[in-house]
Amino acid sequence: MHDKSIRVHSDEVAKATKAALLRRGVTKEDIAEIVYEMQNPYNDGLTLEHCVHSVERVLRKREVQHAVLVGIELDELAEKKLLSAPLQQIIESDEGLFGVDETIALGSVFTYGSIAVTTFGHLDKQKIGIIKKLDTEPGLHVNTFLDDLVASIAASAASRIAHRMRDLEEEGVTFADIEPEELGPKQKPHNEI
Amino acid sequence: MHDKSIRVHSDEVAKATKAALLRRGVTKEDIAEIVYEMQNPYNDGLTLEHCVHSVERVLRKREVQHAVLVGIELDELAEKKLLSAPLQQIIESDEGLFGVDETIALGSVFTYGSIAVTTFGHLDKQKIGIIKKLDTEPGLHVNTFLDDLVASIAASAASRIAHRMRDLEEEGVTFADIEPEELGPKQKPHNEI
Amino acid sequence: MHDKSIRVHSDEVAKATKAALLRRGVTKEDIAEIVYEMQNPYNDGLTLEHCVHSVERVLRKREVQHAVLVGIELDELAEKKLLSAPLQQIIESDEGLFGVDETIALGSVFTYGSIAVTTFGHLDKQKIGIIKKLDTEPGLHVNTFLDDLVASIAASAASRIAHRMRDLEEEGVTFADIEPEELGPKQKPHNEI
Amino acid sequence: MHDKSIRVHSDEVAKATKAALLRRGVTKEDIAEIVYEMQNPYNDGLTLEHCVHSVERVLRKREVQHAVLVGIELDELAEKKLLSAPLQQIIESDEGLFGVDETIALGSVFTYGSIAVTTFGHLDKQKIGIIKKLDTEPGLHVNTFLDDLVASIAASAASRIAHRMRDLEEEGVTFADIEPEELGPKQKPHNEI
Questions:
Q1: Which residues does the UniProt record annotate as the domain YutG/PgpA (chains A, B, C, D) (predicted)?
Q2: Does D100 contact A at CB distance below 8 Å?
Q3: Which residues of chain B are within 8 Å of residue C3 when distances are taken between CB atoms?
């Protein structure tokens, strides 16, 4: 049952999410590059900066922040050999039939609709950009959850752009006509849902 | 509220599912070829026949049968211009942001685990084999739902094979050692869940 | 493959969604009452009007609009006996193991996070307010999809309020301090994602 | 990338799953009682023993085992205050908007179809039997993930029984006519999918 007395403020959760990604070597620009590569062919006037702002907006969602915090925690615990057997081995070896890494990533990608889900599946197999780097990094790092989380953030940000593109088309303009900031979080950053 | 008096027998639903796929030009071999292409690199001794049986087994699941019947019904109604506006236009034009086609396909693919979901996303973008043919068929056919349904059946059958492969490895054998029929429905074909 | 030449404008889709719900006897106030009943105990100062605006906002989402249009179309076709066998009987009898009705509703509820999903499951079993009325309506109406769609819109609107409540708590205010319109769609109603 | 050299055998994963549930005070009979309470009204001749076997079968699924292992690991780490801030506080306080607990449970419940999903949502709110006990246990235990996992196993086992019931009806028999073992795992317990 929920104990309100030790509740954490949203801003703290948001800050911890960004810090966790950076600590694991992932910048929002890394993720934005994947988004740009996927959406550029379909969206006139789209710039990398638009994609960065879309990634920032995705990272404001509670559902996404919680997924990132749990996934990275498990990767880091596995890296320090602090999980119990056999979970330690399963996560450490990036067991192909594990599935909980995809499930946690899917939980947040679902909130961006079914197109985000198929894009996530595509990225999960194709592993472009930073995702490939994370998946093949030699040696000590465990990125079992991280590569799926990055794919999910990229898929969500791409889906937002595809939906926004349609609005622009209906208004008779393109991404060239709008400021990148318009795709980012609003001034007063309420958590999005 | 459910009215038991007009209940349909499982066998009739199973038969209608197979008939609907054939009527739309999709054989179980077409689907099995996609499965084989995806799983062959990872599974020693796997044959097309193993894949056909896995597809047959997937087609025994109620969740899959119902998805196929609803999706093909909507495609056929759209083809005959029998849907009301604006749904008729949305389905007829295979509107990229529609999403209900992916949602219905996802509903059945979910029952094969998160690996099936990412495989589905991959197929939905890559469109190999019969999926490509369905998506680009010129002229009169509406296959808005059908291509997603085929991707979902193929992804599910592939996921079954990946899981079965692991069992075989643990027993020290490969697909070369087992009869294709072993991957298919049991003699007395209860609906699977 | 998508044919852009017959694309439908967002406003038309939004209008058709509202019209379809009204035609089937469901007002946004009916749905808001379910939301109010569920969220009132936890949210100081919440009024029915806040809930109406939250429902309106949910109804601006493409994913939701498409689900409503497809579900109601299938209900109405079944009512007019225009579906082919055995789908006609399955939908007409509100077959308990059918599942595609829940799947389509889930597709849109997912976009509001996992709390919306569990709330949807709860409503699907408890059937409060208009949902009960739809499920037990005697005679000619087929509401196999509609009751699930209403549960999904209510669950989504309730989830939005629960998330917004947290923001308010963190700002030291309650729903009594904010205008109901704040929960509704923005002036220029871009489609939400 | 997957490292095959440290792969864990299925039997070990299955054993660890059962041990983890028992260590946290949950027996398969506890879960079976929830299943029985939900399914008894609709299924003539159903006994608690049938439900126990259905729970055992659900616990053979890899997807379920992995979810249980991850969820209980996080509960136990939180109990020992071994998670990093702010995740430690979020999980320890059973934060209502957290969502990853439901997401992980949903991942395995999905594999039993959309009816299992709505049943899960219902149990998540109603909290009957052992679920209530886990949710309100005073003092030192953290069961943030465990109550959702138990709800997901119960919902899955109940869904299996509902589907099996239909098969029995079509054969003209009831649960009174079949051995409880028939609902359990097969002699040679391959992992199910």
A1: 46-163
A2: yes
A3: 92-94
Residue type, D29: E
Percentage, residues of chain B above pLDDT 90: 70
Helix axes D146-171, D48-58, angle to 10 degrees: 120
Which chains have 3+ CB pairs within 8 A of B? A, C, D
pLDDT band at D13 (very low <50, low <70, confident <90, very high): very high
Mean pLDDT of chain D: 91
Residues of chain C with pLDDT under 70: 1-2, 186-193
Residue B6 phi, psi dihedral angles, 5° rounding: -115, 35
Q: Please indicate, yes or no, if residue D128 is contained in any of the structural domains.
A: yes
Q: Is B72 on the interface with C (CB under 8 A)?
A: no
Tens digits of residue pLDDT in A15-51? 999 999 999 999 999 999 999 999 999 888 999 999 9
Domain hosting A85: range is: 12-172
Peptide bond just before C86 cis, omega within 30 deg? yes
**Helix ranges (DSSP H) in C24-129:** 28-39, 48-58, 62-79, 87-92, 100-109, 114-126
Could you say which DSSP state residue A43 is in? S
Residue C124: give its domain's CATH number. 1.10.3760.10
Which chain B residue is nearest to residue D188, measuring alpha carbons? Answer: B167
Picking from C90, C93, C104, the nearest residue to B103 by CB comes out as C104
Distance from CA of C163 to the nearest CA of D (A): 7
Closest Cβ–Cβ partner in D113, D160, D193 for B63: D113
| B94 contact residues in C (CB cutoff 8 A) | 1-3
Q: Is B1 a domain residue? A: no
Residue D187 confidence (pLDDT): 52
**pLDDT, tens digit, 9 for 90 and up, residues D143-155:** 999 999 999 999 9
Contact of B9 with chain D, judged by CB distance below 8 Å, is answered with yes
Read off the pLDDT of residues C142-187 as tens digits, 9 standing for 90 and up: 999 999 999 999 999 999 999 898 888 888 988 898 899 888 886 5
Per-position DSSP letters for chain D, written without gaps between them? ---GGGPPPHHHHHHHHHHHHHHTT--HHHHHHHHHHHHGGG-TT--HHHHHHHHHHHTTBHHHHHHHHHHHHHHHHHHTT-SPTTHHHHHHTT-TT--HHHHHHHHHHGGG-HHHHHHHHHHHHH--THHHHHHH--TT---TTHHHHHHHHHHHHHHHHHHHHHHHHHHT--GGGS-GGGGS--SS-PPB-
Mean pLDDT of D132-159: 91
D43-95 pLDDT, tens digit per residue, is: 889 999 999 999 999 999 999 999 999 999 999 999 999 999 999 999 999 88
Query: Residue C21 domain-assigned?
Result: yes
Domain count, chain C: 1
Under 8 Å CB pairs connecting chains C and D tally to 65
> What is the predicted pLDDT for the residue at D189?
46
Q: Exposed/middle/buried for B147, CB within 10 Å: 0-12, 13-18, 19+?
A: buried
Q: Between chains, do D135 and A1 touch, taking CB under 8 Å as contact?
A: yes
State the ipTM, two decimals. Answer: 0.92
Q: CB–CB of C125 and D120 under 8 A?
A: no
Helices (H), A5-86: 10-23, 28-39, 48-58, 62-79
Closest approach of B59 to chain D, Cα-based (Å): 14
Of C161, C157, C91, the closest CA to residue C123 belongs to C157
Residue D73 and residue A67: Cβ atoms within 8 Å? no
Interchain contact, B8 vs C89, CB within 8 Å: yes
Residues of A in contact with D99 (CB under 8 A): 62-63, 66, 107
A141 or B137, higher pLDDT: A141
All residues of chain D having their beta carbon less than 8 Å from the beta carbon of residue C97 are 115, 162-163, 166
Do the beta carbons of residue D72 and residue D145 sit within 8 Å? Answer: yes
Identify whether A189 is part of a domain. no
